[in-house]
Design brief:
Length: about 750
């Protein structure tokens, strides 16, 4: 390749002082990228710390909470070392670049299709980490395809040992991820916390590689390295991409690919992990691959779907009346499949059986509904309704396997929406008169009667349900907003009155106060204080009205020191003026206000003259020596109770607006409600029902006690299918470990 081709070989003009003989432009890129990745990694570790702290706050046991706190401590101690190691590894990638080939996390080409036996040799934790890393690299390569392609070509022209068959790119995502994994090996944490670290690394570092790639390309273009990028590959597969890149810029190609496949890679991670776990489970149980068994005839997917059409009917004993009557229906899907296959005609004496993919899907649906029917977060009527959809959902996944891997699948979105909308249902609700129940009931009925394989039915029902929810939520939101504002005002008023009463009681208990003055303060000035407390956010008068009380009590106390008596003379005129203005503002006893102020002046004057008498009283009255009261048994018991409540108070402090909970009453009845307001100044938590109406108000300690007694349950609001899939993964992992 000559210089006239547009490529200027930087290694022909290396700076004499550059390290490892690198061109100055590459050194500049290396230093910029190293610093940028260091900053991004700091953000990732900060996010890890926040995530672990939140998980610890929401932990359901002391052991689980301690586990997260220990992980936080481990990461905080070692994060600086990891950051330094990672940046050093990045520098090494530039100084001694690796050749681009298979990702460090993928298997060799000949081992891509792993058997169940080989999968059984992989540890659970290694499998999870490998799947997460492969997804991370694949997503980033799809998202930044254009910049990566340009940078790889330019770097390969800069480094003398690079060739078209063995290109180099120090910023390849797989190399950066491998460098981080190596640096993070020092962390002694469990797999769940390690996956959190990888997730935040992906979110904060890998997902933000674009700006560093663009900067690196810009520096090389300025240096004259392939300023007009055109990529031509020798392979036929790459020639298609090359022709596309000549018609469109690499950036536009990368954006299009990212839009089509980035989310797909992310969604497929969990499904692929489940399938691998199922494969290991089959291998551990000694099952022979279906294709290797000559005594069976594998039934095709389309044939299986036709067989299943005869299973989907509404329960005959219920008809159209009430699909949520009775208990949730639990079907043994394996038995149902065996009965279906028994009615098929065997070919050449072979036994009919399902292929492994269909069997995996049936197993997943079975485990999915086992979770759904055991999920306490679902209200009972909605749980029964969703249990009727086992056969339709099985038909969905047989027809369209992306149900598990695609979060936006119409059937999956509809199930999540039904579960979320029905979380506020209680067993005591009147179903026959509720529009929400009627809507969900009709959706389930239509699926049972109409679904024959067209997934668009779920999309249509989902759109109709979203429109219905939008109308209902608008109504409930208005009622909830009025309830919230009303409760805030009422609770703040109550808090204001309690604060005023407590403050006056405390200040008036220290010394005898004339009845006239006591009446003015408790019945008149207390109203001024009440209004000042409520308006303090705007007017900032609270401290000044409290100071009036302090000044009045001080002026009623006989002053013996000359400086104090001079101060008294200066304070009293302004004090009387403030008292009159405040009492007039609240219209306190306006007909007798002049007489009351006259009596107040008289009391103040008498107090000023009584310094001699006060001195005599002060000599005769001795203050009793303060003694430290011994803690009573009641006090000790209260202290122990508070310590026991600490764990539950932490859970209550983790509640956020919109959280659904379930309260249990003494008589055994239960009801569900949503947290709509936390009024900190009054230590008050306000809950409303589905219609936005207030149902209960409790303090933080009251809620903690309810939680301690088992009469309060915090409901999980995550997407139903997502939670079910997480549970399935945990169950499979446990079974595989035992095997």
């Amino acid at each position: 390749m000559n210089k006239q081709s547009g490529i200027h070989y930087l290694h022909e003009r290396k700076d004499a002082g550059s390290q490892n003989g690198l061109p100055s432009e590459v050194v500049r890129i290396r230093d910029t990228v190293s610093a940028g990745l260091g900053d991004l990694l700091q953000g990732a570790f900060d996010a890890v710390d926040d995530s672990l702290f939140e998980l610890a706050n929401n932990a359901r046991s002391n052991n689980e909470q301690n586990r997260y706190f220990e992980a936080m401590r481990e990461i905080r101690i070692k994060r600086k070392g990891i950051e330094k190691h990672f940046q050093g590894a990045v520098v090494k990638l530039f100084n001694h670049p690796s050749r681009i080939g298979a990702t460090p996390f993928s298997q060799p080409e000949g081992q891509q299709q792993s058997s169940a036996d080989s999968l059984s040799l992989v540890q659970n934790e290694e499998l999870e980490e490998q799947v997460a890393l492969n997804a991370m690299v694949s997503k980033s390569r799809a998202h930044f395809q254009g910049p990566l392609l340009q940078l790889q070509t330019r770097f390969s022209s800069v480094y003398p040992d690079a060739t078209d068959d063995a290109p180099v790119n120090p910023l390849a995502p797989e190399l950066l991820c491998a460098a981080f994994v190596e640096a993070a090996q020092v962390l002694e944490i469990q797999i769940r916390e390690r996956l959190i670290v990888l997730k935040q690394f992906d979110r904060y570092v890998v997902s933000n590689l674009g700006m560093l790639l663009d900067e690196a390309n810009r520096i090389l273009v300025q240096a004259g390295v392939i300023p007009n990028f055109r990529y031509h590959s020798k392979t036929s597969g790459s020639s298609t991409a090359a022709s596309a890149s000549t018609a469109r810029s690499p950036e536009s190609v990368g954006e299009q690919v990212a839009g089509d496949s980035a989310s797909q890679y992310e969604d497929e991670v969990l499904f692929e992990q489940i399938r691998q776990l199922l494969g290991r489970h089959r291998a551990a149980s000694g099952q022979m691959p279906r294709a290797a068994d000559p005594t069976i005839q594998v039934i095709g997917t389309s044939e299986l779907f036709q067989l299943m059409n005869q299973l989907q009917q509404p329960p005959r004993d219920l008809g159209h009346r009430n699909l949520s009557a009775g208990e949730p229906v639990v079907l043994d899907l394996h038995q149902v499949m065996e009965q279906l296959l028994s009615h098929t005609q065997p070919a050449e004496g072979k036994k009919p059986a399902l292929n492994e993919m269909d069997e995996d899907l049936i197993n997943l649906v079975s485990m999915l509904f086992e979770f759904i029917l055991d999920d306490y977060n679902l209200s009972a009527p909605i749980q029964v309704l969703i249990s009727r959809l086992q056969i339709p959902i099985l038909k969905v996944v047989i027809k369209d396997k992306s149900f598990f891997s695609k979060a936006t699948h119409p059937a999956r979105r509809l199930l999540n929406a039904l579960a979320k909308a029905g979380i506020g249902w209680s067993e005591s609700d009147e179903k026959s008169r509720d529009k929400l129940y009627e809507q969900i009931h009709n959706i389930v009925l239509r699926i049972l009667e109409e679904f024959e394989g067209d997934i668009s039915l779920f999309e249509q029902l989902g759109e109709e349900f979203d429109q219905f929810l939008a109308r209902e939520n608008r109504k409930a939101s208005l009622v909830e907003q009025r309830t919230r504002e009303s409760e805030r005002g009422r609770i703040k008023s109550r808090k204001a009155q309690e604060t005023v009463d407590k403050l006056l009681q405390e200040k008036l208990s220290h010394q005898p106060i004339p009845d006239t003055v006591r009446d003015i303060l408790t019945n008149g000035w207390s109203r001024v204080m009440f209004l000042a407390y409520l308006r303090n956010d705007v007017e900032n008068r609270w401290n000044s009205v409290v100071r009036v009380v302090d000044d009045l009590i001080w002026c009623l106390h006989p002053q013996q020191d000359d400086n104090d008596r001079d101060q008294w003379v200066r304070v009293v005129p302004g004090l009387l003026k403030s008292l009159r203005a405040g009492l007039e503002e609240v219209s306190y006893n306006s007909s007798k206000l002049d007489d009351m102020m006259g009596e107040l002046k008289h009391e103040l004057t008498e107090a000023f003259r009584a310094h001699a008498l006060a001195e005599a009283r002060g000599q005769s009255r001795e203050e009793p020596e303060a003694t430290e009261p011994e803690p009573s048994e009641t006090t000790q018991q209260a202290t122990q109770d508070d310590a026991a409540l600490a764990e539950h108070v932490t859970v209550i402090d983790g509640l956020t607006i919109g959280t659904w909970v379930e309260f249990g009453l003494v008589n055994g009845a239960r009801f569900r409600c949503k947290l709509t307001a936390i009024i900190e100044e009054a230590d008050s938590f306000v809950f409303v029902n589905r219609m936005g109406l207030k149902v209960v108000e409790k303090s933080r300690l009251d809620l903690a006690r309810e939680l301690q007694r088992g009469r309060l349950t915090v409901l999980e609001q995550g997407a139903l299918i997502d939670r079910a899939l997480d549970a399935v993964v945990g169950s499979l992992r446990g079974h595989t470990a035992q095997a």
